[in-house]
Write a structure and sequence with these properties.
The chain is mainly α. Helices cover 88% and strands 0% of the residues.
Length: 193
């Protein structure tokens, strides 16, 4: 029993002695884990966890400056764990972002095709260039966004593709609603004229 108590005291004193100097090994491990998380894409796909890891590492460094090595050790270990968690979350988050980007690209493409057919029908019915200027500008911007999103998808930048497509389909659908009644209205004018 006395041997166990002496052993526990030795461990306790060792832990206390370990806190008498900066926990450089743990800081380095945390920094390496953060670098690995960044390389994996955690800044984009696990942003909250990644930000938590980097903020906690900064707290560890601040604690070292204040010579609170025990707190620095705690922060460094926490930072490393957060970075590892961020890395672990990246593959699933990237897959979800890819699925969302693929779906949004498809849906936006269909909306652009629909708007293009409505614009053709409006022109065929005699709509003026002035009347179709805003929907044409929407169409041009949407086509550009689709091209940029396709490029981002090919580069496996799924979050960027989603950002490029954000709101585009809604704008195209709004333009389509404005253009859709034009051919009927123009036909009605011809009949009454």
């Amino acid at each position: 029993m006395r041997v166990i108590a002496i052993g526990l005291l030795g461990v306790l004193f060792g832990a206390l002695a370990g806190c008498s100097e900066p926990p450089q090994k743990e800081i380095d491990e945390a920094q390496s884990a953060i670098a690995a998380a960044q390389a994996a894409g955690a800044e984009t796909y696990a942003a909250e966890e990644y930000a938590g890891a980097t903020a906690t590492l900064q707290k560890a460094r601040a604690a070292i400056e204040q010579r609170d090595y025990r707190q620095a050790l705690s922060y460094a270990i926490d930072s490393r764990q957060r970075a590892i968690e961020a890395s672990r979350l990246v593959p699933d988050a990237r897959a979800r972002a890819k699925t969302a980007a693929d779906s949004e690209l498809k849906n936006t493409g269909e909306s652009v095709t629909h708007l293009a057919s409505l614009l053709r029908a409006a022109r065929d019915a005699g709509a003026s260039a002035q009347e179709l200027r805003a929907p044409d500008e929407t169409m041009t911007a949407a086509t550009r966004a689709l091209q940029e999103a396709r490029t981002a998808l090919e580069a496996r930048k799924y979050a960027e593709a989603n950002a490029l497509l954000h709101g585009v389909r809604e704008n195209v659908d709004t333009a389509a609603k404005a253009v859709a009644p034009i051919p009927q209205r123009l036909k009605g004018k011809r009949r009454s004229g």
